[in-house]
């Protein structure tokens, strides 16, 4: 009986590991995408999806030329749901097209060590607990450090929405539309979700 229980637990554990790994074909399809380099050494995130990912500095610079809303994907290298977003939702052609047309998309490793200077303030990595956090991530996420999390900013860098968790394609599309089409100016996200 103990052997059967051990085998069942091992199979269940292997299934969980497999479920959170990015699909090999999704990663290989994406290597040819025109993804911009990110502030991370993780190769899987440098080419994640057909979205034109930028670094924070690239988005700030592009925004000075053409003001656009900013979409930030906060991830960590250890986050299974972050990898799943890359392999599924962010690889969806319609999601990628909508993001590319309406936002400067930033892929931001919330545990990166590089300093960033923004509006005269230097944001640094701060060690703490089992893992540390980059202080720009902590600032933009309002201290809610769960991953993946998404932050939407106006072209003047005012926060519109903080959205935590994995999002299947329909949920992500609804959220993107809420921000891109300025529905947030007249209704709350909760009210918009119920009505749409």
Q: What would your notes on this structure say?
A:
The protein is of the alpha/beta class and 196 residues long. The protein has a single domain, classed as Glutaredoxin (3-Layer(aba) Sandwich), CATH 3.40.30.10. Helices cover 42% and strands 19% of the residues. It is built from nine helices and nine strands. It has a five-stranded mixed β-sheet. Strands 4-5 form a two-stranded antiparallel sheet. Strand 4 and strand 5 form a beta hairpin. Helix 6 runs parallel beside helix 8. The longest helix has 19 residues. It is globular and about 40 Å long. About 23% of the residues have low confidence.
Give the class-level CATH name. Answer: Alpha Beta
Strand content: 15-25%
Radius of gyration in whole Å, from Cα? 18 Å
Instruction: State the CATH topology.
Output: Glutaredoxin
Morphology: globular
Helices, strands, pairings?
Blueprint: H1 2-20, H2 24-30, H3 43-46, E1 53-54, H4 56-65, E2 69-75, H5 80-87, H6 93-102, E3 103-109, E4 116-118, E5 121-123, E6 125-126, E7 133-134, H7 135-140, E8 149-153, E9 159-164, H8 169-180, H9 189-195
Parallel strand pairs: 1-3, 2-3
Antiparallel strand pairs: 2-8, 4-5, 6-7, 8-9
Helix pairs in contact: 6-8
């Amino acid at each position: 009986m103990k052997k059967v229980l051990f085998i069942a637990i091992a199979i269940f554990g292997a299934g969980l590991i497999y479920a959170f790994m990015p699909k090999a074909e999704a990663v290989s399809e994406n290597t040819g995408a025109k993804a911009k380099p990110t502030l991370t050494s993780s190769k899987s995130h440098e080419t994640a999806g057909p979205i034109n990912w930028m670094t924070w500095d690239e988005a700030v610079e592009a925004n000075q030329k053409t003001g656009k809303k900013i979409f930030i994907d906060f991830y960590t290298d250890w986050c299974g749901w972050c990898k799943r977003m890359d392999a599924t939702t962010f690889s969806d052609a319609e999601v990628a097209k909508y993001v590319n047309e309406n936002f400067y998309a930033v892929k931001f490793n919330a545990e990166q060590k590089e300093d960033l200077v923004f509006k005269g303030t230097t944001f640094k990595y701060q060690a703490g607990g089992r893992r540390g956090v980059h202080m720009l991530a902590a600032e933009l996420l309002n201290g809610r450090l769960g991953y993946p999390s998404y932050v939407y900013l106006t072209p003047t860098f005012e926060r519109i929405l903080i959205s935590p968790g994995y999002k299947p394609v329909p949920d992500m599309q609804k959220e993107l539309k809420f921000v891109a089409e300025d529905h947030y100016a007249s209704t709350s996200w909760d009210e918009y979700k119920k009505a749409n």
